[in-house]
Amino acid sequence: MTHIRKTGLGKGLSALLDDSEVVQAPVRQQPVPEGVSPGNISHIKVNEVEVNPFQPRADFDEQALSELAESIRLQGLIQPITVRKAGNRFQLISGERRLRASKLAGIAEIPAYVRTANDQQMLEMALIENIQRENLNAIEVALSFQRMIDECNLKQEELGDRVSKNRSTVTNYIRLLKLPPVIQASIRDNEVSMGHAKAILGLDDVDKQLFVHKEVIDKGLSVRKTEELVREIQHSGKKKDKSGKEEAISFQFQKIQDDLASKFATKVRLKVQGKGKGAIEIPFMSEDDLSRILELLDW
């Protein structure tokens, strides 16, 4: 038999945790135990709480968990977790980091807010709670947004309303999932920022995206430099056909052109005429600039 001890809340916190505006769908799980009502914190046993199967966050910083556990040992858990009743046990809705740290701290009972929720509400609340309160990386946020769209049947406008973000912000996050896996992994591991990723998304070709990503990693390019590189690739990798219209040269030639431009520190144009023929044009701005280029050519 689950032991539940009820503690009254102050008026401000009670209003914050008021359940009346959150629960909108009929409950399919076992009802909340008698005596547990919105606006009250219940103390439940840690070993009776099951991890949320809808938890969008996979990685938890062990050092941060240890620090939180030490804080809980000294001061107790200030912010309650949120659970729902599941048979004779409880299922976590939000607060897995706090639950894990409480276990590390050796706490037997934990303060919890017992909520009523069906599976879809539970998923939505877990995703929103993590997006708003946890330090998720951009890929985790993007995956959470996509799950809310796919599994909660939300449109981007509705999702934006749920998480208090405008539609363009939601769109920018979801677009990250269109990047090659290696770039997504770099975003997840904080090797490149959201700003870098948005710049790289300006290129449609995967090979070009991978090239810019490598340049960012190898040379430590800032977001501004990355944006400049993307613009150069967008505009410099073109030649004109007989009608005067611009047509794109292959990425391989464009990469050679970019490498030469980097070597000579000036804009280089690679003119490809077909059948393996072409020319390399290296402009110079002065006699001194010409001397500098000739030195690089070991002239």
TrEMBL record:
Name residues in a coiled coil. Answer: none
Q: Which Gene3D superfamilies match?
A: 1.10.10.2830, 3.90.1530.30
Alphabetical keyword list: Chromosome partition, DNA-binding
Keyword DNA-binding in the entry? The reply is yes
Q: Which SMART domains match?
A: ParB
Name the GO terms of the biological process aspect.
chromosome segregation
Start and end of every ParB-like N-terminal domain?
42-131
A GO CC term assigned to this protein in UniProt? chromosome
Q: Which PANTHER family match?
A: CHROMOSOME-PARTITIONING PROTEIN PARB-RELATED (PTHR33375)
Q: Return the protein name.
A: Chromosome partitioning protein ParB
State the taxonomy lineage: Bacteria, Pseudomonadati, Bacteroidota, Sphingobacteriia, Sphingobacteriales
